[in-house]
Amino acid sequence: MATSGVKRLGVTEPLSTAIPTEAENQATSALVEELQRQNNYESTTDTAKRTAVLKSLQEITEEFVRKVSRAQGLPENVVKSAGGKIFTYGSFRLGVFGPGSDIDTLVVAPKHITVDDYFTYFPDLLTSMAPQGAITELTPVRDSFVPIIKFEYSGISIDLIFSRLAVLSQVPKDLVKLDKGLLKGLSEPELRSLNGTRVTDEILSLVPQPGVFRTALRGIKLWAQRRAIYANIMGFPGGVAWAMLVARICQLYPMATGSTIILKFFRIMEKWQWPQPVLLKPIETGDLQVRVWNPKIYGADRGHLMPIITPAYPSMCATHNITYSTKTVIQRELKRGGDITDKIMSGKAPWKDLFVKHTFFTQGYKYYLSIISASTTENAQLVWSGLVESKVRLLVGGLENHDSIALAHPFNKGFERVHKCQNEEQVEKAKSNLEFQIPATAADSPVPNGGGPQDEARTNGVEKATTVYTTTWYIGLELREGKSSFHHNPKT
Length: 492
What we know:
39% of the residues lie in helices and 15% in strands. By secondary structure, the protein is an alpha+beta fold. Strands 1-2-5-4-3 form a five-stranded mixed β-sheet, with helices on both faces. Strands 6, 7, 8 and 11 form a four-stranded antiparallel β-sheet that branches. A two-stranded antiparallel sheet has the order 9-10. A hairpin with a 3-residue loop joins strand 9 and strand 10.
């Protein structure tokens, strides 16, 4: 029962404001212990390393803005005051990162700095200003959903995106919040870049107990990753969507502890009346000429199967990629997770049972479809595999229309392999089997490995080896009752 002493967060009153019982507190302590055993928390030394990397990126950002400003012939007093600021978003900003997590980072620059300047100057400044050898795997990607530079900094993966602020001629270091007024005059890619940080900040401001939220979210993220239902591009919720679902449960049970939030998460989301959207606050309107999620106006929005709506203006659906099959898989996993958590909360099972790995390749399906992209250079494969990966979800949609197929379940990631071939015949074989695979690259392979060590030199002075890079995606297929083949009669 809601009480007047608890501040309402969200679009409805809380379902309960009951204080946690001793048993619930003990269950949460056991949850944290299990998360620690599962290596879910980073050491203070490694976190300090991240802080040092972000400090360096801030210094590089300020120098980047100064360098571009000077190149534009601006007065030195303007150059020195132009500023520039690094923001984070995603798991790092939410406070739920762990060992090996990347840092999603945003460069914010004043209005006279362009995205072309970003790609022209920033990569070189990274390598020249960071300690020697600290920057590796530097990959600028101009034509992505948002302008991004990917790299490793002292072993930490960084995804660095960019936006200018069209209303500011200088960006001070003490700018802490990217409010709605700063969005004016921006392009769609710039808006998307800024919204990562804005959404993360809104989520944290809309939960009653951030510490409880973080503990519960760590548990749900680990569960979703182990069950292979964590990947936006493959039709599953991504990190932000899972965070918003957990945040909504925190709003409904504002006094609850982490273990209770996880139990309520499973039971409420299992029975959620989709396509009713999950909202953390009423959808905001504004005066920008941008699209805001609205199924009453937009047909595409009406087609979203499990809409989870971002709280920052302009609101968008974070789960537009979900298909009928992935929705079914998610709902099955929510039911399974709830049944296990019921046992955990009644003392009949340990938390480790919730985090048992998926059985997609061992017990999941009788039939599998594999999609393979192949290239003979690493850079070509990076582009080609990215394109193919973006189309797997569309293939799933087509398979769902096959009259023999009840469910098409894509695994949530592809498997990268490298093969050494001595002739064209072997190159062709490498595109579809593992005979020439280099074993060291196949640690995560779901199927047996083969091949020998890579050698780019000529073999016996006769023919140079060709390296073939492949990425394979798998779709588990469930046939309709009474069907035993894939003979196709197209649906009308």
